[in-house]
Amino acid sequence: MHTQASTSVTSALDPVPPFRARNAITVRPYLLPGLESLAEQTDDQLWLQDALLGPFSGDIVGFLELARSTGGPVLDLGSGAGRLAVPFACHGFEVEAVDRHAESLRRLRARAEGRGRHVRDRVTTTCADLTRPRLRRRYQLVLLAGTLVAAVAPSVRVGFFRSVAAHLGSGGALAFDYTAHDTGALIRDPVRTWVFQVPRFDGVTEWAVARQVFDPAAMRERITYDVERSGGHGAHRSVTTTTKWVVDDAELTRDLRAAGLRVVERRQRRLDGRTRSVMLACRTK
């Protein structure tokens, strides 16, 4: 479901000024309304990835709080380069990280190695699709962070949740987050455009325009990121896309119940007038 296409243009001209899109809304990175990218990120896109889904998202603290109540081991599905797995290992948790991209797992292992043997030895990696992880043990906490539930097709969601539930230990929990949209607003206004400056601290200026296009009938959305960087070596521009399922609250609740899971904790905050960020913790019935 999630794909990525990237093109880039470089120039030896003077640094370009911050660019804007017509009718775009300027927003701060840590208030981005559900713009997380589900696509694999290349090395030169890591700054953008951190702005979309990284230390600015604030979800690490919430998931760590939950882990302290469940204990380990922890299963991090769709781990990427270890933005959660490595901090969890640093805090003493045994973590299995699952991702379909071998390069992301290589970066994860390098990050863990850089933190020392005591962190490296707590992390294992498995290269597999998050919906078919080939689970072989029980876990006290299963994480599906970064709105990755939007990468799970509704047709297979119950089966996916049921597989996770079967591998939860006593008192274990599944925790995940997603973006909830006002369906009526999507129908009235299916295209949204946002512009934000990507936080960087290396002398490079980077701006991004994110264009969301919703298909309410199919419950899908496509996001295109048009990124422009400028610095001492000229200008660089890239275009990246990601596609997701739009998560419906009521359908999600029915799927969890059908899989034998119950919601024991719900945290949410409003991102804008039409969008909420929701985090759920679920346990078996």
Structure commentary:
This protein has helices at residues 46-52, 59-70, 85-90, 102-114, 117-120, 154-166, 183-188, 249-258; strands at residues 7-11, 25-26, 74-77, 95-99, 123-127, 139-144, 168-181, 191-197, 205-215, 220-231, 234-245, 261-272, 275-284. 25% of the residues lie in helices and 37% in strands. The two termini are 30 Å apart. The strands form two sheets. It has a seven-stranded mixed beta sheet, with helices on both faces. Strands 1-11-10-9-8-2 form a six-stranded mixed beta sheet, with no helix packed on it. It contains eight helices and 13 strands. The chain has 285 residues and is an alpha/beta fold.
Structural key phrases:
disordered N terminus, 8 helices, 285 residues
Write a brief caption for the model.
This protein has 285 residues and is an alpha/beta fold. The chain has eight helices and 13 strands.
Sequence-ordered SSE layout with sheet pairings:
Blueprint lengths: L6 E5 L13 E2 L19 H7 L6 H12 L3 E4 L7 H6 L4 E5 L2 H13 L2 H4 L2 E5 L11 E6 L9 H13 L1 E14 L1 H6 L2 E7 L7 E11 L4 E12 L2 E12 L3 H10 L2 E12 L2 E10 L1
Parallel strand pairs: 2-8, 3-4, 3-6, 4-5, 6-7
Antiparallel strand pairs: 1-11, 7-13, 8-9, 9-10, 10-11, 12-13
- Report mean pLDDT, rounded to a whole number: 86
User: Helix share of residues?
Assistant: 10-25%
Low-confidence stretches: 1-18
How much of the sequence is in beta strands?
A: 35-45%
Q: What is the SS-derived class?
A: alpha/beta
Trace the largest sheet across and list its strands.
Answer: 5-4-3-6-7-13-12
Radius of gyration: 19 Å
Counted beta strands: 13
- Helix-strand sequence: EEHHEHEHHEEHEHEEEEHEE
Distance between the termini: 30 Å
The largest pleated sheet is described as: 7 strands, mixed
- What is the tally of helical segments? 8
Task: Give the oligomeric state.
Answer: single chain
**What spatial form do the alpha-carbon principal axes imply?**
globular
